[in-house]
Amino acid sequence: MRQSKTTKLIQQSRTAASHANTVNLPMHRASTVLFDSLAHMDEVQKRQGADEQIPTYGIFNMPQALALENTVAEIEGGYRAMSFPSGLAAIAGAILSCVKSGDHILMTDGSYDPGRRFCDSVLKRLGVETTYYDPLIGAGIEALIRPNTTVVYTESPGSNTFEIQDIPAIAKIAHKHGAVVIMDNAWATGLLFDAFAHGVDMVVQPATKYYAGHSDVLIGLVIANEKTWPQVRDTNYILGQRAAPDDCFLTLRGMRTMDVRLKRHAESAMTVARWLQGRPEVARVLYPALESDPGHAIWKRDFNGASGLFAIELKPCSPQQLAAMIDGYEYFGLGYSWGGFESLVMTAYPTRTVNPWTGGQLVRFSIGLEDVNDLIADLDAGFARLG
Predict the structure, then answer these.
(1) Where would I find the beta strands (DSSP E) of 280-381?
(2) Which residue, 342, 325, 341, 324, is CA-closest to 333?
(3) Is pTM, for the whole model, over 0.90?
(4) Cβ–Cβ under 8 Å, residues 186 and 203
């Protein structure tokens, strides 16, 4: 029977035969897997080489990791997935699985800033060159592709400035030239954007955010199509970058409610965003789900919905005014993460290479699960302090 992604979030990895009739998968904390005999060990190693999902050691195919990885692969629409100890580790693992010394990659100029630092430091030391491109370039990216370009890295919407990329157009050009398309799909998750159906080869999912959803886990995943899976598997088996069983368990638990949470995040975010559009202190709201957003048409074409993260550009104000507004919030915590149950705020200073940010002060909001009227009252009081 065909299942929707909503049902897969609840039912995937819950077969009674493997879980002793419990609703949740029992916890397995182990470094060592025992074998019955030398013949058994040899047989398992052969089957492991054939990509069968058999536990052999604490970082290879353990129950918690497999349950999480297989479920996420289903939700994102990929072939297989691999867990990592953080979102940034997943970014690094995805790129490293596709490059060698002398290669060239294209990275969206709107990408997550720590990912940029990885490219500008580690990749540079390894002899891999990075060129940043305008996230709105679309099919024009062909002009930047070189014979040694192996990766086109995308993120839609972009971090902090929320540009929506034309992923199908970019993927078509990248594949024409033999490059792998990687996408950071944290904002939408596989519920709201089917990256593989739009031409992406590999998805990076910082599952700390909406997948885990409770601000108590650091974890990342790389989901690959069948063509790119062997290089992801082999590279990261060697690197030994895998998430701990407790983090996999907590992420899998959080996923069971992700569909419900995302709908509430989106509903509240739209209410807050529309309210902010009417504020005299706000120059504009950067949220693709708004009809006024420059990326709205492509968002509406490609996405199934929006999540709870957006930014505002403030009209000119002093640092003291900005601090008065933010420091006094009651419900918006000041922190770097997002996607959890609680509302968060932070100032944003976009790092750009192609088109330096020339707008005003950006403030990014992650709208949580609190009563939206309380959140608006908190924001209203903040504007009073700013004024």
Answers:
(1) 282-286, 309-314, 333-334, 344-348, 362-366
(2) 342
(3) yes
(4) no
